[in-house]
Structures are given as C-alpha cells and as structure tokens.
Write a structure and sequence with these properties.
This protein is of the alpha/beta class. The protein has 5 helices and 14 strands. The model has no long low-confidence stretch (mean pLDDT about 90).
Length: about 270
C-alpha cells in the first residue's frame, strides 16, 4: 500500500492537484491500489486491472464586471494582503478586514503609492481603539453612512476595496482577512466546451492508459495535510472557481472516457 503522506511530501509542486484528487476520490468512493504523479496526465491510478489517467483542471469564473480572470484578481489581492500585513505595526493586534469590490482588478502602481501611508494610518488609528471595538477606513464622507462605527477617511483607498474594517478583539497577533460579495453563476455548456477544447488538444500527448478522466474542480479545496501548526495570518474568501452548479444538457460528448465536475470537497457530477 502506497504512503499518501510521503507522496505529498515528495511532490511539493503537486500539492494542489493531489489535494483535489484526494477529495474527488472520496466524493465518488474511488478505491484505487496505487497513485503515481505524472505530467500528462496529472496522475495515473491502478483501478482493478486498469490504469486510469486523471487530469485535474480548475473551473474558472470570469466576472462580467472585469476583463481579468477572477483567479488573477484574487491572486493580486492576496499579494496585497500579505504585503499590507508585513507593513503595519499597530499599537495593538488587529484584525484588518478588507472588503473587496467584485471583479475590480488590483492596480499595483496605485498600491505602491499608497501602501506606506495606509499602513501608517492603520497604526495611528489603532492607538485610540478601545477593547472589542470596530472602526472603518472609508474613501469619502458619504460611504457607509448607515454604519454606527467610527469612520476614518482615506481618499486614496484603492478602487478594488469598498472599505477596511479594523477590529480590536483581543487578538494575540495581527491578521488580515478578506470578504467579498458577488453572485455565483452556473457552470454552462460554454464554460465546459472552453475547457474541453483546450484539453482535447493536449490529450494526444498523455501517457497511454486504459482510460483517461478529466476532473474539473470548482470551489475551495481543503489541504490534504496541514503544513503549518499555527493558523495563517492572511485569510481571504475566494469565489474565483466557485459556481452555483452545472447548467448544461447532459451527458456531453468528450474525447475523455469520463469528465467530472467536482464541487469541492464533497460532490462530483459525471457530465459525459
């Protein structure tokens, strides 16, 4: 019997795919004898007397409000959040809550111009915060007019942020969290065909297997193993790969023997 933990440790570049495959296998009760990481496909499993190639790919949500893929936007937001956490030195540990505008890209030139002054402003505000208090950083006087929390105006607040919420609630160390709004669309035939068209072109270069499966992953994938004993200090919500469900006339035809839409971490729909 292979050791999944050792396989995980030996293949750091495969952590995301391995985690996705593990939870997918659990969702369809796939009992396999061995698992070998490869490049094309991502994995080969022994299933009875068959070798099954498994290709993992992410569903991609493209916001109608932006020309940029949601994953690209969220990656830039994460980069900003980590950098902001490293920049601040508040008088007390805070939860710096970033409320993102859906579909608005991060302007890194703007971020570089204001990040130092924003960090200093957060530090300054923290000096007068009382226990269990919430204070807001907003762009203009009219923002968040119904909120009863104390407000601080920062006109240069980047466009990808609605506002920032500072929470003093007895934290041992400062954290940055992120929230976002937005409607989840269904994963349509057009979305499916876009992925299938690309994957069909590369399928001819895959290692020979008795069957080839494609797993389209939607939603957040839990880590297979916790790599850090302490909790992370940057926690951001994500909808870049999330969908309300599959809206397509099934089954569809594909060059893959099986195609699954995997709503991570619990439910997989076979679409071929």
């Amino acid at each position: 019997m292979f050791d999944l933990h050792n396989l995980y440790l030996e293949n750091p570049k495969k952590h995301d795919e391995l985690s996705a495959f593990h939870w997918f296998a659990k969702s369809i009760c796939l009992e396999y004898e061995s698992l070998v990481p490869t490049e094309r496909p991502d994995f080969i499993v022994d299933l009875g007397n068959k070798k099954i190639g498994i290709e993992i790919t992410l569903a991609q949500r493209n916001s109608p409000l932006s020309n940029y893929p949601s994953q690209q936007i969220e990656a830039a937001q994460t980069k900003f959040s980590i950098s902001l956490l490293q920049s601040i030195k508040p008088n007390i540990p805070l939860n710096v809550g970033l409320v993102f505008e859906d579909g608005v890209a991060v302007d890194m030139k703007q971020v570089h111009k204001i990040q130092e002054s924003l960090a200093l402003y957060i530090n300054e505000i923290s000096g007068n915060m009382t226990t269990h208090s919430v204070e807001l950083i907003i762009r203009s006087e009219g923002d968040m007019c119904r909120s009863k929390h104390r407000k601080h105006i920062f006109p240069a607040l980047p466009a990808f942020l609605q506002y920032i919420q500072l929470l003093n609630d007895g934290y041992e160390e400062s954290v940055v969290t992120g929230a976002r709004g937005g409607f989840l669309d269904s994963f349509t035939e057009a979305d499916l065909f876009s992925i299938l068209e690309k994957k069909h072109r590369t399928l001819t270069g895959y290692q020979k297997c008795d069957e080839q499966w494609l797993v389209i992953v939607s939603g957040l994938v839990p880590p297979l193993f916790m790599e850090h004993t302490s909790r992370p200090n940057v926690l951001l919500a994500s909808i870049a790969t999330s969908f309300a469900g599959v809206d397509a006339k099934l089954p569809l035809k594909s060059d893959f023997d099986r195609v699954y839409f995997f709503n991570s971490p619990t439910y997989a729909t076979r679409i071929t």
